[in-house]
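[Discussion] Sanity-checking designs against the backbone

I'm trying to build intuition for which residues belong where. Below is a structure token string of 140 positions. I'd appreciate it if someone posts a full sequence so I can compare it with mine line by line.
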């Protein structure tokens, strides 16, 4: 709306996600979002709680929400890339590849994160550091 950044998805998609955001945070207008984001008492969990809503919108086919999940998947891949130089080569060579321990609620949406994260982890940046395979594992 402000013409600062055009993400390349239909305007309707922005309207759907904005409406969901206002509803989730119990706001009457988008100006209230500034109060939340710039609040000195902001808890990360407040913002993180909206991830579930974005994931649901993505599953329902919302273009903007899907783009957000793709971007999140790439960021997870970048985080793994950032530690690869310090990973013991034996961990990379084990059967099935590097085991990545999935902790936290973000992994409940792994099906939406997997395509972009997987593509990133198969990129030259990662394979050149010895990552040829990986497994996502969860703690019980």
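Best answer:
Here's mine. Compare freely.
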């Amino acid at each position: 709306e402000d013409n600062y950044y055009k993400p390349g998805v239909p305007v309707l998609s922005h309207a759907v996600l904005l409406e969901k955001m206002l509803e989730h945070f119990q706001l009457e207008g988008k100006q209230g979002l500034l109060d939340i984001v710039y609040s000195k008492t902001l808890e990360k969990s407040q913002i993180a709680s909206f991830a579930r809503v974005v994931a649901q919108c993505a599953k329902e086919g919302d273009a903007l929400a899907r783009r957000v999940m793709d971007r999140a998947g790439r960021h997870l891949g970048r985080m793994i890339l950032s530690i690869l130089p310090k990973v013991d080569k034996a961990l990379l060579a084990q059967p099935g590849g590097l085991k990545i321990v999935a902790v936290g609620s973000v992994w409940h949406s792994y099906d939406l994160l997997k395509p972009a994260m997987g593509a990133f982890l198969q990129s030259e940046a990662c394979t050149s550091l010895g990552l040829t395979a990986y497994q996502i594992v969860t703690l019980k």
